[in-house]
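pinning this so it doesn't scroll away 📌
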Amino acid sequence: MKAAVFHGPEDVRFEEIDPPALAPGDVLLRVRACGICGSDLHTYRHGLFQQLGNPIEQGRVLGHEFSGEVVQTGGPIEGIELGNRVTSIGMGANAEYVVIPKARIDTILPIGDNISFSEAATTEPLATSLHAANLGQAQDEEVHLIMGAGIIGLGILQCIKARSKAKVIVADLSEKRLAKATELGADSVINVRAQNIVKDLGGSSAFSEETLLDITTGSVDTVYDCAGMSKNFEGISVLEQALAIVKDQGRVVVVAVFEQSPKIDYNLIVRKGIQLLGSWAWSIEEFKEAASLIRTGAINRKPLISHTFTLEQASEAYETQLRAEEAIKVVFTP
């Protein structure tokens, strides 16, 4: 079968590999769409999180945001029929086919005839956004700030707006992504290239490039760090800025992963009584809720799909997803 195979940093190749084998109780999907996740990019750039890929004889097949059609089962399975249009959880979906093991059969969910395969492939990242939004606990009239307007940050915006009347501010470097945030209902957006977000939202003129210690006030109830810190980043991290911007007794939800460790002044957390919450992935219940939100039209994911590529264009697809000014969500359509 066709696949995009990761061989090392910045080395993803289109290849023919052996199709997966089915064990009793397994389900084989013909992959119709698979997104490139932020964790896939960490693998592509630096070789991180390779365990999220499916190992083959030489290399790994990445991809865990997908949808497709049921084409074979390892015996009769209640509720599963050939031709079903579904999304699910698994690894190795940068390929024509992917196996859903027997232990994960309950994660095979219908996507509905009115939802495209590409939209359905964004279920897993929406579940990640939903988990973060649940930790953020948005209430009507609160102010929430999302720092980083990629697929996860924009998904958090969608979840908050679908379930509350909280005011949402979105900050990013990319005008394209900020425009998309406005389209999806953000109350305001901030381009951090042109605006000092800490001075504007931190509530203090004491901010300096060396320290955030003197900032003890803020104007935001909850801040979501959807940016993290890349290996080549220099300066004050998004997480440090978030701690300065959040109100006393506020929440900072860390969704992004870090390629280097930021320098944190923990006295700021203590003095402001900040709740610092890590947000990793989702629960099965949240995955199912995300699928329902898409299937019922409560959340529209179509505007987030910026590019589609074939598996033959694997290298170009990954390079495109790296360009924040150009891409939001890149999807393979095998």
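📌 and the second one:
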Amino acid sequence: MKKNAVVIGYGGMGGWHTEHLLKSDVCNLIGVYDIKEERNELARSRGIFAYDTYKAVLDDPRVDLLTVAIPNDQHRDGVIQGLNGGKNVICEKPVAMSSAELADMIKAAERNNKIFSVHQNRRWDVDYLAMKQLSESGEIGEVFNIESRIHGSRGIPSDWRGELAHGGGMLFDWGVHLIDQILMIIPDKITSVYCRFDHITNNEVDDGFKLDLGFENGAKAYIEVGTYNFIAMPRFYIQGKKGTGIIHDWRQNCKVTVCTHWHESEVVPVQTAAGLTKTMAPRDSVTTDEYELDRPLSDVHEYYRNFCAVIDGSADLIVTHSQAMRVMHVIEASFESNARGQIIKTEL
């Protein structure tokens, strides 16, 4: 049986959720609620029922689940109100402003015996899925380095995402996604965090950042978000002990080169501008295989299908509390690293 859903917050992501829920095979969208009356009126003008108050949503016995899509600093109170009101709750990312706030949400879910999870929708990005598939396949051997970048050129948004009090900044906005993706590819314990913020167009919050993660197994990850890049660097770059993979743009396939023979009988030196080099001589088809991965199949609505199945008791959460908490701890360590200007040793 389909679950009845209400979206709290009818802004950018709230609108995205309503569009997907209207087409859902597991949910009925029965309404929305926004603290701004003009947003409720906009919903009504589009044929979507809008509640007059949040209390009216919680008092409606038909409602099975809420999707909370409001500014970051309001997540904790909005989620806990929903859980205390007897509703299952999905929260937009970043789930909270701190690990302490997230702990309060988890306790509220447990206390009320309700399902709660964060909407990490970018686990369904095809570029991430291709990287995860390549890593898990063993085709390039043991992964020792992965780099993840998102580059734009329009600066930070001019709405609440540029304000510190509301949890603005790119670490919260995009970093939460990219960190989650990396931790799904490399699940080992994180032993070091080193983060540097950019303040090119906004002095109040980070409008970009550079983050290095070190793992117990020796692997390293580099995550970068930039909002003032007029030429973007590759979206993903991954190195294993048998080969390399690269995705230049999320619209392109993953290109893979696998080393089939390490030694060559003769390496022809390459003439560079200032001399010869054997070390950097390019390889050829005799010692490598080159190919592209097919784009993985992806359906972002699997998140809602999973959440509804968990409500029915027939599945476990895809995005777990421990995963959400781990991402939050990395974000907190990143803020600390930037503030102190040094590497933070961790056991995350």
